[in-house]
Amino acid sequence: MRAMTVGNPATLENLKLVDIPDAGSPGPGEILVKLHASSLNYKDFLVATGLLPVDAGRIPLCDGAGEVLAVGEGVVDLAVGDRVVAVFHTRWPAGEMPSDAMRGAPGDTIDGYARQFAVAPATWFSRAPEGYSHAEAATLTCAGLTAWRALVPDGPVIAGQTVLVQGTGGVSLFALQFAKAMGAIVIATSSSDAKLERLKALGADHLINYKTLPEWGEAAFNLTGGVDHVVEVGGSGTLPQSIAATGYGGHISLVGVLTGRGGEIPSGMITRKRLRVQGVQVGSRKDHFNMIAAINATGIRPVIDRSLPLEELAPALSLQESGVHFGKITIDIG
Ligand SMILES: NC(=O)c1ccc[n+]([C@@H]2O[C@H](COP(=O)([O-])OP(=O)(O)OC[C@H]3O[C@@H](n4cnc5c(N)ncnc54)[C@H](OP(=O)(O)O)[C@@H]3O)[C@@H](O)[C@H]2O)c1
How far is the CA of 152 from the centre of ligand 1 (A)? Predict the structure, then answer.
């Protein structure tokens, strides 16, 4: 079967499409999945370029969706023909994240889904939401679940509260959609006025261009009297503004590192406002199932910017890094 692999050194040019042995037959408790689609997350760029070191030859991409071709003995929750989507954490079933969870992260510490077939424990997949294409389902593994975890189990957001989302990447658009589905008022930011118009069409209540208004935190605070939940994807470069935006007793989900991994933090303001700053590592398998149930109930559909074939993974990752996209870039595995 065909698979994309990370090179040594890891660079976009060294991503290689190779032939690897067939996946084989599923053993007890396992399923054989024909993967049809994946989608890109910023982390995949870090893996492919060596900024997040992985073993040479690692198959990248944590997102995956496809169809069950065979089931092993004892599998009762999934059947041949089911459309399925990969669960991000293979070692975090529910409750608090175990300390070794990241040792079972597809596309990072174990092989991901940039390949045609996978044999895996049935617990590594769930049914896809009703009516979803494979590409739509693939977007849920990481970006969808991260937004869900940030706002629902970790929030929890309740109707009438305010949520601030940053930019128009995969996590942020899911956060906007989940927040609106929960009855929240959403402030959305972007570097582009054209993208702000699209955020409005998705239901954002207040719009801020963070390039033309660098002190957007104060503006967001004044719009709402203090935001209840911020889904922080920028990291160190945006955190001071997020702290300024948040209301007393508010919650900041520390999700992303788009502007860097460390920096100066106005910690006094966190204390003064009694803020809750919560790190996020996607979510558990139980969170994943709850998210799928919520999607089936609300009819939320992911925003897909474009789809590229697996052969074009390197240009697809460059495109994502450039930030021109709106929502998810998906990968067609065929
Ligand atoms: N901790 C976790 O569990 C977890 C899970 C998933 C992702 N992440 C992290 O979350 C971040 C977002 O991931 P993603 O996959 O959604 O990324 P993405 O799709 O690549 O998002 C890119 C978008 O982010 C926006 N952006 C860039 N710099 C910004 C800034 N300074 N302020 C506000 N927005 C900014 C831009 O939107 P505009 O063009 O509209 O300005 C850009 O188009 C990444 O750092 C990723 O590693 C963490």
Answer: 19
What topology does CATH give the domain 155-279? Rossmann fold (3.40.50)
pTM over 0.85: yes
Q: Name the residue with the closest Cα to ligand 1, atom 29.
A: 234
Asked whether 189 lines ligand 1 (CB < 6 A), one says: yes
CATH H-level superfamily of 2-143+283-332: Medium-chain alcohol dehydrogenases, catalytic domain (3.90.180.10)
160 C-beta neighbours (distance < 10 Å), count: 10
Pick the atom of ligand 1 nearest to 320's CA. Answer: 20
* 329 CA: nearest ligand 1 atom: 19
| Domain boundary assignment for the chain | 2-143+283-332, 155-279
Q: Does residue 304's CB lie within 6 angstroms of at least one atom of ligand 1?
A: no
C-alpha 177/C-alpha 198 separation (Å) is 13
The pLDDT tens digits along the chain (334 residues) read: 999 999 999 999 999 999 999 999 999 999 999 999 999 999 999 999 999 999 999 999 999 999 999 999 999 999 999 999 999 999 999 999 999 999 999 999 999 999 999 999 999 999 999 999 999 999 999 999 999 999 999 999 999 999 999 999 999 999 999 999 999 999 999 999 999 999 999 999 999 999 999 999 999 999 999 999 999 999 999 999 999 999 999 999 999 999 988 889 999 999 999 999 999 999 999 999 999 999 999 999 999 999 999 999 999 999 999 999 999 999 999 8
* 167 Cα to the center of ligand 1, angstroms: 7
Whether 42 is in the pocket of ligand 1, judged by its Cβ within 6 Å, is yes
- Determine if ligand 1 sits within 6 Å of the CB of residue 209: no
